[in-house]
UniProtKB/TrEMBL annotation, chain A:
This is Ligase-associated DNA damage response exonuclease. It comes from the Bacteria. GO terms for molecular function: exonuclease activity; ligase activity. Keywords: Exonuclease, Hydrolase, Ligase, Nuclease. It is an enzyme of class 3 (hydrolase). The keyword rRNA-binding does not apply. Its EC number is 3.1.-.-. NCBIfam families: Xnuc_lig_assoc.
Automatic annotation (TrEMBL), chain B:
Its EC number is 6.5.1.1. This is DNA ligase (ATP). The keyword Ligase applies. The keyword DNA-binding does not apply. CDD domains: Adenylation_DNA_ligase_Bac1, OBF_DNA_ligase_Arch_LigB. It is an enzyme of class 6 (ligase). Gene3D superfamilies: DNA ligase, ATP-dependent, N-terminal domain, DNA ligase/mRNA capping enzyme, Nucleic acid-binding proteins. GO terms for molecular function: DNA ligase (ATP) activity. Residues 305-435 form the ATP-dependent DNA ligase family profile domain. Keywords: ATP-binding, Cell cycle, Cell division, DNA damage, DNA recombination, DNA repair, DNA replication, Ligase, Magnesium, Metal-binding, Nucleotide-binding. It comes from Belnapia mucosa. PROSITE patterns: DNA_LIGASE_A1 (PS00697), DNA_LIGASE_A3 (PS50160).
């Protein structure tokens, strides 16, 4: 058996599968890329050939048009492909619609690159499937034991309680346009919210695409053309950067909410001026990361980005070899990146 | 209802900037929670109930026994706050069947549990809670909720919820202990209003309206009495067989911070006055600027050095009760006469009479007001001679006539976003004045921060200007090009060791945007220094 460290390498262009001749989620344009999911820090424009799930390719086309790749190859879950001497499979990662883990086998050893993933149920995408492997390449966005995401239904219930307490006020929820937005809508629908949900312009194209791809979201309306009276007591979904900025002035006395795993830490919410923090994340929390690593049974785990220090330490306690890859450019999702360090005003 | 409901209220209050929204959250709490928990929760929020049973070290030991030290250290480093770290990292045990404790169970158990058994008890509670509940519990039992709910805000919420006047609630509030069952029963119409009897209670203060020019024109000088408006904090002194209290303007008990006053209160009366730092000087007590008094505020414990360096006294304005007799219905003149007699008879230590200012005409009064330059004087108080002592701000009875503000032209240096409705606006401004730089040339030094005074239109204009002239950003703060001049007005300038410029402004606010003036022509620090009073104010 050839250990994966002999054929899967970190290069300046990104994580390279050498015998297959392709990169996974490369930060720079390359000849051949396998893309785990459509978030901007994983799916960059300008690659020659792109291999991904049909949903991820559709998302890339919607977001970057021509830049989505000169040649695109769709691969469904369950299909197997030989690329050079390497066999490749894409397995659901449970992160967003189309998200996949890349399972690679070469000369008797198997490596799995998870991309970003979560283990909580999500009605808008297929659930994560653990695949036993020799090396598991994982993210570690929330790899500190303080991050334990609560049941998202509980967080949505908080929003609905606030709406009943402040029925005149718009509730604007900051959420990333791809994945979080549609998951929130699905959670709201599951909680019985059947009124129209209003969207910031940046949220609309991907919601339309999700619906085309078979994820029903109920009645959606643009928030930008709605009048103030219509927005009283409405739920508006907007990019996190818009909720406390000039755009939000059109809303009726808004309660600002933000749906993100970082909202578990108070200072994060305080710094962003969030009134209603909602701890909803599309990443695995501490418990889920550790459980997943135990389930795939890999004796060795590589950490792409996030809190690799804590995760590698925790793995060592269980006799698992951990290695930090320090991949650059990952973890830059707008709502999943820590806000700038808070700094007070210069002393007057 | 149990601790989780309280935790949710706490979380919302902490993140909610608006007063109205806070009131709505409190009303909802009163309406939905059972006794005694709603009263216990209320007392905990307003810090009338403070627990010190558990020390932070105990909580730290509990979590250290349950977590890996490296992971705990990394987590604490990331989160910052220990209580929050513990609440978040606490390992959740599956199969815990016990339900979370109620607030009153927590309070009762803390009282009766021997010290050695406390860690086990607390750990057991933490096992039943989610992270929000754990944080609420830890903050509660280590005595540090700090959610910014004042007693006054809570009583306003009770008044709104029950449709009873807030003054009536104020008058009995301190006569009933948490969890305030008789008050809740009264507010819900099940019982008569509780009678505080001898217990020291707060009586709502009578307040003044600002005097506008048109009011001045209509003022009959013969019908009004004038006194200085001192720049300290308004207090009510209550003493009698039931105990002694010093109440703040909002009805908070601030007795603990001023032991020398409390000691001097060996009488049976209720007095209204101004708490000031007063030092001996030539010709009597000399009132220090507000900055000195600030050293004494918000302290739980006062050391001997504080007592020596910042001695406080109370300048008496009014007499509300004497030996159980309610003087409030009497006219001001009559109460004043009784006050003078009372002071003459009792001569209480650390207290003196607020002097009456004789005047024959409005013009004469205006001269007196303009002549007052002492930083410790904010202006004049005008009180109708026949005014009874009424709760709150009753139009036409009392007026406050502040001195004309001072003014400087300063350069905008930094701007910060506001909160709540202003969260999309850069509405807080740090401004500076010129002074010689160390290496030659001129530099701007920040002298203050203002977040009021402008109109909505001016705010919009400033917001746009700031976005278009930003030179760097630090989190929520933007540094701007040093090119916009603002006319800033303020009530007084006082020397301050805590400010880089060496001077602190009282109530700075924006009067005008001076687009007509280049930044180089803005004022210099020495112009501001000229406003600082040479010495503390004398009695006159």
């Amino acid at each position: 058996m050839r250990h994966p460290e002999t054929w899967l390498r970190v290069t300046p262009e990104g994580l390279l599968c050498e015998p297959g001749g392709f990169y996974i989620d490369p930060p720079r344009p390359v000849a051949r890329a396998v893309i785990t999911h459509g978030h901007a820090d994983h799916a960059r424009p300008g690659h020659q050939a792109v291999l991904a799930t049909p949903e991820t390719l559709a998302i890339m086309r919607a977001r970057m048009g021509e830049g989505a790749g000169a040649s695109q190859q769709a691969m469904r879950h369950g299909e197997v492909l030989r690329q050079g001497e390497v066999t490749i499979r894409l397995v659901p990662a449970g992160h967003v619609l189309g998200s996949a883990q890349v399972v690679m086998e070469w000369q008797g050893s198997r490596a799995v690159v998870s991309g970003d993933y979560k283990r909580q149920p999500d009605p808008t995408c297929l659930p994560f499937e653990p695949v036993p492997c020799d090396v598991f390449v994982t993210e570690a966005t929330f790899a500190l034991p303080v991050f334990r995401h609560p049941d998202p239904a509980h967080e949505v219930a908080k929003l609905l309680r606030s709406l009943s307490l402040f029925p005149e006020r718009t509730h604007v929820v900051g959420c990333y346009a791809l994945g979080k937005c549609q998951r929130l809508i699905a959670l709201l629908r599951a909680a019985g919210w059947d009124r129209p949900i209003h969207l910031h312009g940046a949220q609309q194209p991907l919601c339309r695409l999700y619906e085309e791809l078979g994820v029903p979201l109920g009645e959606l309306r643009p928030a930008t053309v709605a009048n103030k009276a219509e927005l009283k007591g409405a739920i508006v979904l907007a990019p996190p950067s818009a909720i406390a900025d000039r755009w939000a002035r059109r809303l009726a006395e808004p309660v600002t909410a933000l749906a993100s795993g970082w909202m578990r830490v108070r200072q994060r919410a305080k710094t962003r001026g969030v009134e209603l923090p909602m701890v909803i994340s599309d990443h695995a929390d501490w418990d889920a990361l550790n459980r997943t690593i135990d389930e795939v049974g890999a004796p060795e785990v590589w950490v792409t980005h996030g809190r690799d220090d804590a995760l590698v330490h925790a793995l060592a306690l269980r006799g698992i070899r951990g290695r930090a890859l320090h991949l650059v450019g990952l973890g830059e999702d707008e709502d999943e990146t820590p806000a700038e360090a808070p700094e007070g005003a210069p002393a007057a | 209802m149990s601790l989780p409901a309280f935790a949710e209220l706490l979380e919302r209050l902490i993140f909610t900037p608006g007063r109205n929204a806070k009131l709505a959250l409190l009303r909802d709490w009163f309406a939905t929670q059972p006794d005694p928990d709603r009263g216990v929760g209320l007392a905990a929020l307003t810090e009338e109930l403070v627990f010190t049973a558990a020390k932070p070290a105990m909580i730290r030991d509990l979590v250290a026994a349950r977590t890996d030290p490296v992971l705990l250290a990394l987590s604490h480093d990331y989160v910052g706050d220990l209580a929050e770290t513990v609440a978040l990292i606490w390992p959740e045990r599956t199969g815990v069947n016990a339900s979370p404790p109620t607030l009153s169970e927590v309070v009762e158990a803390l009282e009766v549990t021997p010290k050695a058994e406390l860690p086990g008890l607390i750990a057991g509670w933490l096992d039943t809670l989610d992270s929000g509940g754990r944080l609420a519990l830890i903050k509660l039992i280590t005595g540090g909720l700090r959610v910014g709910v004042s007693g006054r805000l809570a009583r306003v919420a009770l008044a709104e919820w029950s449709s009873k006047p807030v003054e009536e609630i104020e008058e009995i509030w301190h006569g009933v202990a948490p969890p305030y069952l008789p008050i809740f029963r009264w507010l819900e119409g099940q019982e008569e209003k509780p009678d505080p009897r001898d217990a020291p209670v707060f009586r709502p203060l009578m307040l003044a309206h600002p005097l506008e020019d048109r009011d001045l024109a209509a003022l009959d000088p013969a019908a009004y009495r004038a006194e200085w408006k001192w720049d300290g904090i308004r207090v009510q002194l209550t003493a009698g067989p039931g105990g002694r209290r010093i109440w703040s303007r909002g009805g908070e008990d601030i007795s603990g911070g001023f032991p020398e006053i409390l000691e001097a209160m060996d009488f049976h009366a209720v007095l209204d006055g101004e708490l000031l730092v007063i030092r001996d000087g030539p010709g009597g007590g000399v009132v220090a600027p507000f900055a000195d008094l600030q050293q004494r505020l918000n302290r739980k414990l006062v050391g001997p050095k504080m007592l020596r360096d910042y001695p406080v006294g109370v300048r008496l304005y009014d007499l509300l009760f004497v030996e159980g007799e309610d003087l409030r219905p009497l006219p001001f003149d009559e109460r004043r006469r009784r006050l003078e007699d009372w002071v003459a008879r009792h001569a209480p230590a650390r207290m003196d009479l607020s002097a009456m200012i004789a005047f024959g005409s409005v013009a004469q009064l205006s001269e007196v007001r303009d002549g007052a330059r002492a930083a410790s004087i904010e202006g004049l108080m005008l009180k109708r001679a026949d005014s009874p002592y009424l709760a709150g701000r009753v139009k036409g009875m009392w007026w406050k006539w502040k001195r004309d503000p001072l003014s400087i032209d300063a350069v905008l240096m930094y701007a910060q976003r506001g909160h709540g409705k202003r969260s999309s606006f850069y509405s807080d401004y740090t401004f500076g004045l010129w002074r010689p730089a160390e290496g030659g040339g001129e530099e701007l030094v920040p002298v203050g921060k203002a977040y009021s005074g402008y109109t909505d239109e001016e705010l919009g204009w400033l917001d746009r200007w700031i976005r278009n002239h930003t030179v760097s950003r630090f989190g929520p703060v933007r540094e701007v090009e040093k090119s916009l001049v603002l006319e800033v007005i303020f009530d007084a300038a006082q020397l301050s060791g805590r400010h880089k410029s060496g001077v602190a402004l009282r109530f700075p606010r924006i009067a005008r945007i001076r687009t007509d003036k280049p930044a180089s022509e803005a004022d210099r620090l020495e112009n501001l220094m000229a406003y600082v009073e040479a010495g503390p104010a004398t009695d006159e």
